[in-house]
Predict the structure.
Amino acid sequence: MAKCTAPVRGHTSAAAAEACPACRGRSSSRYSSYNPSYSSSSSISSYSSNAGSSGSSRSSSKPRWSKAGSSLSYTSSQVISLTPIRETVEKRAVEQPDLRDVFLCHAWDDRQGAAKELHALLEASGVKVWFSEKDLALGVPMMRAIDKGLVNSRIGLVLVTPALLSRLPKEGVADKELSALLAGNQLIPIVHNTTYDALRNVSPLLASRSGLDTSEDSMEVVAKKIAELVTL
């Protein structure tokens, strides 16, 4: 009986499978698992390729910064969107070690509700938070708050709620400013009691960066994921 060459040569193409005396004439995709270059490690490239398939964004993945024994699980799309943020955290921690971990941007109407809850959960998880309720005088425009917060923090969180969506157009958020923050991998949207579709109708730029969503994870889990992301 002819011996399959897949363990040695791999069947990465139809031509390779056709050259195998045992597998000639069969579909090469059946033998792709023998490809010696295949790796089961959680690289960003593997997440990217999986994210395009139906339903794969809900698959459970472990990012490289996840600590041993962590019970947190991430979707592949979360890993893809958070990996550049983690790289920014690592870079800024070396360049400016005295910065706070995150700043929290939120609508004024959420200061005693969702924003306060998230702030408390983050601090309980050991995250150093720049929070406007304690760090910024009243009446400062949102983008100035974002600028000031980012100067003093490694990354930023934007708590996207119905209150924020109603205020975004009135705050005069400049596309170029928002674009710069997103391009610098410094900003994570956290959608709460609304949707990315609703955000897209108000701010396509902010909605272009996927982040975390409390319809997928509880606020407590979101805080733990942020804590894991910024812990070095």
Q: What stands out?
A: The first strand starts at residue 60 and ends at 61. DSSP finds twelve helices and seven strands in the chain.
